[in-house]
Design goal:
8-stranded parallel barrel; single chain; 6-stranded antiparallel β-sheet; globular; 15% helix; 854 residues; binds beta-D-galactopyranose; alpha+beta
């Protein structure tokens, strides 16, 4: 690849200095800034910038969590927070807007600004995002003649109305960079290029319209379209994926930008828990900057929770943890967060050289690449990569040897010294665990000795079976989403069958099979008022068949089919038209077949408990209490009170013992729960080899286990010192007394650092820059390291929790670590023979430590 000449500086130095001065007087970005771009980078106030960004979706956490999440993002080295705007949250009913609570977009953006970070506002308004219906309000579907995402007025009018509404709101609040606000980028549409081929001849004119509509809104910051190779100027087309180093924008005038670097992958009910090793994530990021990228965003940096019925689908789980650097509960996921923080610091050390020029590429051998950035004034930064997924290598660069582990990049911010290697983790591992807790009440009454709320404290309400209230009739089977408009997950299909004496179904006492075809997502069959069978589809295919052997009795028989959705589809061509519900019902026995599909059915949208708003209804006349609580009964609502769990650690509810349903704390839905939907028994890996291309199914844990048994209850939903209300709606049957509360806390800290690791990235003086250092730190500022369980200097092996000594180990390691670390919040120990002596000459040694805090 030929090197590009050094690019001209976009502004004169004196102007730059002035702008810098202005910025530095105002750490909260209150000065108006101009944002543009050129071939090399996003340009802010005339200065090309390397920007590290991370996605945090405001409704996936609470306003109370935002400041801490954003501060942790800043501490992790982010410059920008990227969020989608969720149309169906803000306009649940056409023309009626809602921006309160978790929906307070303006407050979120102002919180980001207050931390001194920028915002990339991805308005969409189609967002995908594993969000219900991809973010579209369902009412949109009912506008006559509308066709989603192609060139037609009904759709374009609504899309323009909402986009304009958001832009106007941002302008009014002075949130665009030109107004002194934090928004430096905006996005229109989302990955349309991935599906454009299916949308026929008006697809391109739709995209051109979207581009010009967006541009006409004069937001004064650049617009991007992701995964849109044909994005018209001046829209920047950007890349989404696990790797984007190969990506090239569609014009030499546009910078190479990566809007979604998937930090893990999403969880679905029925799936295993995906994770992405940080060595691979860091490799992908380093490769991107190595090969000319200057804007990179982690999707997600904090994934959070799909509260209520917001999850997309079908079957997207309530947890949207995403294996992000900040976990669902708002705690640092270590070493992911820390290793990326180190990477960001080193990339910023390269910024001046990076933005000045395109890199010069030299091959250092097969799968071995060097890219060098050099400014006219002699600043130099180099990236050395070994993209082989098996073999480590030693390369010669600038006359010196460098060892490169397989699938790794070393970064040399001065072209001389390695400051970072993507495969060498200096950061500690923090093992987080759920600690089962007692509520205040139970702590006072130690005799219960259990974490459960006792039986007598629960009340219940039995949901009637079948179409009973507000029903209507229809000949034939109705498509579910068209019928419910997603006002509820539930639709009842009810029918009565008269079995008279000579009916074939009774012949010779033969059994009858009920066949049901469903487009999805979940079905419960009730025969004569009893739950008789259930079935469900999966995230990959929502449709399914159900066969259930039933016995009909002489006379009238009731068949009530409860069809439930679990998040509306959010992705793929024509996803909006993907239906749900029952498409065929047939009764069969040896002698006869009766197709009920075209019979007259009685329907009920939603549940009686929903009509009564039981999630927020405390009327004694509604709720029942019995000395023995009905358990393992389908269609039962439960209510109890609990006291706030102790301490301030994040809280989860463990729903083991329950089947499937939804849960509310003090009237707020914490989402659908479904601990009985387990992941397939195979497909998991014991330990994930980070080397080689990653995919969403490469590294999965939890096989054969519930996809999700723990559900986050944000602290702000729980009232400290007061009683709190928990309401559950259970579909299939469960025992609510088994429900328990757990606190998420750090159990132990581990680190394993080799002598061959680079020194700490924030080392300031030459002495510190000399060698590798092991750093441990308790996550809580008010806790200290209380014990060192393991320490070995030499050739220790194993992983956190199961380290063991190798053939070579210093006898002094444990005592040295105890001396340096116990009683303090954090400690640094040099990984060196100066400290530990030399237990084995001519061997590269490492230090492994496990400690805990209290
Ligand atoms: C992308 C999409 C995101 C999200 C992601 C998967 O295709 O743009 O919104 O759905 O996939 O998590």
């Amino acid at each position: 690849m030929a090197a590009h000449p050094t690019l001209p500086s976009p502004v004169s130095t004196s102007l730059l200095l002035l702008l810098l001065l202005l910025l530095s007087c105002c750490s909260e970005l209150c000065a108006a800034a101009t944002v543009s771009y050129d071939h090399r980078a996003v340009v802010i106030d005339g200065k090309r910038r390397v920007l590290i960004s991370g996605s945090i979706h405001y409704p996936r956490s609470t306003p109370e969590m935002w400041p801490d999440l954003i501060q942790k993002s800043k501490d992790g080295g982010l410059d920008v927070i990227e969020t989608y705007v969720f149309w169906n949250l803000h306009e649940p009913v056409q023309g009626q807007y809602d921006f309160g609570g978790r929906k307070d977009l303006v407050k979120f953006i102002k919180t980001v600004a207050a931390a001194g970070l920028y915002v990339h506002l991805r308005i969409g308004p189609y967002v995908c995002a594993e969000w219900n219906y991809g973010g579209f309000p369902v009412w949109l579907h009912f506008i006559p003649n509308i066709k989603f995402r192609i060139d037609n007025d009904p759709f374009k009018n609504e899309m323009q109305k909402f986009t304009t509404k958001i832009v106007d709101m941002m302008k009014q609040e002075m949130l665009f960079a030109s107004q002194g606000g934090p928004i430096i980028l905006s996005q229109i549409e989302n990955e349309y290029g991935n599906v454009e081929q299916y949308y026929g001849p008006t697809a391109k004119s739709y995209i051109d319209w979207a581009a010009s509509m967006a541009t006409s809104l004069n937001v004064s910051v650049p617009w991007v379209m992701c995964q849109q190779d044909n994005a018209p100027d001046p829209i920047i087309n950007t890349c989404n994926g696990f790797y984007c180093d190969n990506f090239k924008p569609n014009s030499d005038k546009k910078p190479k930008m990566w809007t979604e670097n998937w930090s893990g992958w999403f969880l679905s009910f029925g799936g295993g828990v995906p994770y992405r090793p940080v060595e691979d994530l860091a490799f992908a990021v380093a490769r991107f900057f190595q090969r000319g990228g200057t804007f990179q965003n982690y999707y997600m940096y904090h994934g959070g929770t799909n509260f209520g019925r917001t999850s997309g689908g079908p079957f997207i789980a309530t947890s949207y943890d995403y294996d992000s650097p900040i976990d669902e509960y708002g705690l640092l996921r270590q070493p992911k967060w820390g290793h990326l923080r180190d990477l960001h610091i080193v990339i910023k050390q390269c910024e001046e050289a990076l933005v000045a020029t395109d890199p010069t590429y030299t091959s250092l051998g097969k799968n071995l690449e060097a890219h060098v950035y050099r400014t006219s004034s002699g600043r130099c930064a180099a990236f050395l990569a070994n993209i082989d997924d098996q073999s480590d290598a030693t390369v010669t660069f600038n006359g010196k040897p460098f060892h490169l582990p397989a699938w790794s990049v070393s970064i040399l911010p001065d072209c001389q010294n390695v400051a970072f290697n993507t495969a060498k983790i200096n950061s500690q591992t923090t093992v987080l665990e759920m600690k089962y807790t007692k509520t205040y009440d139970q702590a006072a009454d130690e005799s219960t000795g259990s974490s459960e709320i006792s039986e007598s404290e629960w009340k219940f309400f039995t949901e009637p079976i079948g179409s009973i209230n507000s029903t209507f009739k229809n000949v034939g089977l109705l498509e579910q989403i068209n019928t419910t408009a997603d006002s509820s997950d539930y639709l009842w299909y009810s029918i009565s069958i008269d079995v008279i004496g000579n009916e074939p179904f009774l012949f010779n006492g033969t059994q009858t099979t009920l066949h049901v075809d469903s487009l999805g997502h979940v079905l419960h069959v009730f025969v004569n008022g009893k739950l008789s069978a259930s079935n469900q589809g999966s995230n990959a295919d929502a449709s399914f068949k159900l066969e259930n052997v039933i016995t009909l009795s002489s006379g009238q028989n009731r068949i009530d089919l409860l069809s439930a959705t679990v998040g509306l589809k959010n992705y793929g061509q024509f996803f909006d038209l993907k239906g749900a519900g029952i498409t065929g019902v047939i009764l069969k026995n040896q002698n006869a077949t009766r197709d009920l599909s075209s019979s007259q059915w009685t329907y009920q949208i939603g549940l009686k408990g929903e009509q009564l708003a039981l999630h927020d209804n405390t009327q004694n006349s509604t709720w029942m209490s019995l000395s023995s609580l009905p358990k393992n009964q389908p269609l039962t609502w439960y209510m109890t009170y609990f006291d706030a769990p102790e301490h301030d650690d994040p809280v989860a509810i463990d729903f083991t013992g329950m089947g499937k349903g939804e849960a509310w704390v003090n009237g707020h839905s914490i989402g659908r729960y479904w601990p009985t939907y387990t992941s397939p028994p195979s497909g998991c890996v014991q330990s994930c080899d980070y080397r080689g291309p990653f995919s969403g199914s490469k590294c999965v844990r939890n096989c054969g286990q519930p996809s999700q048994s723990l559900y986050h209850v944000p602290r702000s939903l729980i009232q400290q010192g007061k009683t709190n209300r928990l309401v559950l709606f259970e579909e299939v049957g469960g025992d609510p007394t088994l429900v328990s509360f757990a606190l998420r806390e750090a159990r132990s800290l581990c680190a394993h650092v080799s002598q061959s690791h680079p020194p700490p990235v924030d080392a300031v003086n030459t002495a510190q820059k000399k060698g590798a250092v092991l750093h441990l730190e308790c996550p809580h500022s008010d806790r200290v390291i209380s014990s060192v369980k393991f320490a070995s200097f030499g050739t220790p092996h194993g992983t956190c929790g199961s380290y063991s000594h190798g053939n070579c180990s210093s006898t002094t390691a444990l005592a040295i670590l105890q001396q340096a670390c116990i009683g303090v919040r954090s400690c640094d120990v040099k990984v060196s023979t100066e400290v530990f002596g030399d237990p084995c000459r001519d061997v590269v040694k490492s230090l492994a430590v496990e400690a805990s805090c209290s």
